[in-house]
Write a structure and sequence with these properties.
The structure is a single chain. The chain contains nine helices and 14 strands. The chain has 375 residues and is α+β, with helices and mostly antiparallel strands. A seven-stranded antiparallel sheet has the order 2-12-9-14-5-4-3. It has a five-stranded mixed sheet with strand order 1-11-10-13-6, with no helix packed on it. α8 packs across α9. The two termini are 17 Å apart.
Amino acid sequence: MTTQKSTITTTTTTTTTNGHHPSSSSRILHDLQTLGYTVIPRALSPSQVSHIHAVATNATDGARAGMWPHVRTLPKEFPPWPQTKEGASSETEPEIWGVQHLMHPDLPGHEEFAKVYFGDEVLGPVKEILGVGGKLSGSEDAEGQEVGDERLVMELFNLLVRPDMDFELRWHRDAVPFDGVGVEEEEKRLGLEIVEDDHGNDIEAASKINEDERRKSQKRPHKRKIRRPFHAQYNVALEPDSSLILVPGSHLRSRTAQERDIISKDPYAEDLPGMKAVQLEPGDIAFYDNNIIHRGVYKADTPRLTLHGSVGDVQGGTGRARNVLQHAVGDWIDRCNFQEVEDEKLRRRAESMKARLVDLGREAGADGTRALHSS
């Protein structure tokens, strides 16, 4: 596997927030739709980062010592990963680059990870991305449920850690394969839609474009492609992290002839036109479209503790729920009751989101779908 040598443009694209919560005028959804990613700086406070950093370090140490079987093992890039044997050490088991199932009831500290996953710092932006809650987000309905929560579905929450050897993921999209997929088929699988930005009511994103675009579109409506999200995928950095490398805007198109040529010759190519490394500082959250062209580059001499999660929209249907449950979440979710989460609002939200996943999974049946990549 190649070693990263080239200079990569580092991006710190940010979205202005109001405290830890995006304001109604923020451009999170617009950035995600146009660039394919967005960064929310300091979404977690320093005290939150310090606390969950300690919990994550403990989980990582336990996994490296063979006390937790659900890990991402080197050099395997994508799931499924073999489980390690209980009590095994790094001398007898493969090295790891990730810890899986952070909300598993048997993992020490699972309740602390749940507080992050179900907290407003993460789910506030998620609601904006999924288009749920709107301006009423933060208020409660007649049953005491926060507006927008009724659409959210519990999905995956894992931890990406420093590997013990330099390690890379190949260029990929999470849910659209490269091999044997032509231009037209690739665009079809990306699920692109054409929308008209006329600042009417036809798309929610119209209210989130910047002022220059607004003035132009007031003169003449224009059309553009979007991918409507039915889940939100994110990284929360607990250490400085620039491991995620992507090609902005590539979620809205098939690969170019040049990209196809470069990747076919070297799936780990160090240079791809327009690529950027997403720079995160502790407490930052990066949301990105899982079908953007991206890869990961991880260094053995660089600390890494990054929470990697996804949250679903119930309108995404049974297929995605089936996919999530077959990441082995279905083996333990019935034992997950969140009673150790002290905050009543978070506990109620957690139980409801879990119930929606279970209900959708039962409706979907037992047949599986292709596992999602992540980086």
